Structure formats: C-alpha cells, structure tokens
Amino acid sequence: MRRPSRLVLCAVVVTAVTTATSCVHTRSDWRTASNEPVGLAPDPAEVKEAVVQVYGARTVGAKGLFGVHTWVAVKPADADEWTVYEVIGWRLRWSQSAIVVHSRPPDARWFGAAPELYSDRRGSGVDELIERIDKAARAYPYGGEYQAWPGPNSNTFTAWIARAVPELEVDLPATAIGKDYLGSSIFAAAPSGSGVQLSLGGVFGLAVSAVDGLEFNVLGLNFGVSPNGVKLPMVGRIGSSFEPSNRAEESSPKFPPPKISKLY
Asked: Stretch 51-62: mean pLDDT, rounded?
C-alpha cells in the first residue's frame, strides 16, 4: 500500500475510533444525559422570520456507533416557539404511530449527543415550505413501523420529507442509516429530493445528485462523496460542516416546556 493511501486509511480509522469512543462515553447513562440546546437555533423571541432547520445526532446505545437520529424543525413567521417533526421508535410500545410533533428546542442534545445541522432555510417563501413539510409528514406511510436497520426509521422519515421538499437541499450523512429505504419501490429521487436513486430494500443501492453527490449503499452502509465532503460508515462525513445562516447567541435560548402530541 502506497504511503498516501496508508495515511488516508489511518486518518479514517482514527476518526472512526474517536467517534465510537465519544458515543460510548456519551451514552454511559441515558437517563441522566443532557438535553440542553447547543446554540444552533435562533431564539423565536428575537428572530421573527420563518425558519426551517434539519438536524441529526448520534442515537442511543451501541447503535450510536453506526447511526444518527434525525429530525426536522420549523418556526413559521412570527411564531413564538419551534415545532419539531420526528419519528421515535419506542413510542410504538404504547402508540399506533411513531410520528411525533412537539414543541421543543430544535438544537437540543439527543440523550447527550450534540446535534449537527444539515439544512437551514429562512425568510421569504419558507412559510410555504413549512406547509409542505407538515403535509409530507402527515402522508408518511410507515408511521406504524420501525426498524433500526435497514428502515423504516427516523432517517427514512426525514428523507421522505426532504424528497417532498427538495428546496431544503438536505445532504444527509452516511450515518443516516434508513434514508435509502424506499419500501417496495426501487427507484426514487435521492434522499435530498434531487437526482436519482436505486435502492434494493435499503440494503444495496446507488444515489446520484448535485446535493447528495455520489453514494454507494452496501448492506445499509454508505460510501460516497458530495459537495460537503467524503461520506463514510461510522464516521458520517469528513469535510465542511454546515453553519446556520445567522448563528444564535452563545447563551442557550429559553424555550417553554415540551408539548408532545401524536400526528393524527
């Protein structure tokens, strides 16, 4: 193996091990893990324009070594709180739907794991996008199903919304396992809603688009490259990180207590 190749391989291995160690440490006790905001979302009391943000954070337990949980957050113009759309699998233990719509800080830690921002859209025309997001969430066909691998799961839900609202230009990382799940379909738009994707049960496939780049799915693990960097299993993405249009103040904004409701 040539020296440059060895250096790249070593860098990937070190990054993966560091990520895995961080995930294990973060999940040492999920019952007491932090759910504090990290300052990526604007305070509704200060920002009156409509905003849509898409986030992801490492999942709980050993699954966090490989995957993230993703969600979509919206704040209509002049709204005084955020609304988060997400799928939470364990809700199926007592509910017929895993889809949840609730008011909570969109940039809150997910059981201790710091969220990453994948998309940020603000201003004119965003209220119309929010209406389409709500419509897409209500039309999600797998609300009564959940499988961590290969799907449907929270990432299948986020990709479903992203395909319905391609203006979000969401470039989900390789760790968003489930984003390639298409049910009984084989062909669709890529998870961002642009380009094209071929997927066999979310286990094998190929996606090509200007947003997602070029991705190969092997047993649910993604390898590829996009305008945002190199996509690798466990690592997620190596490259530029997405920044909000107007970063929130360093102090965490104050939000009201969460209000949880089923999306029906």
From this structure: 95
Q: What is this structure's pTM?
A: 0.85
Which residues are registered as beta bridge partners of 218? 204, 221
Query: In sequence order, which residues have a C-beta less than 8 Å from that of residue 217 and are 6 or more positions away?
Result: 180, 199, 202, 203, 204, 205, 206, 207
Does residue 72 contact residue 99 with C-beta atoms inside 8 Å? no
Is the pLDDT at 6 greater than 60? The verdict is no
From residue 122, alpha-carbon distances to 42, 52, 130, 217 in Å are 11, 6, 11, 32
Residue 168 identity: L
127-to-50, 52, 161, 182, 236 alpha-carbon distances in Å: 6, 9, 15, 28, 30
In the three-class reduction of DSSP (H, G, I as helix; E, B as strand; rest coil), residue 244 is classed as coil
The residue assigned the tokens 């992203």 is 162
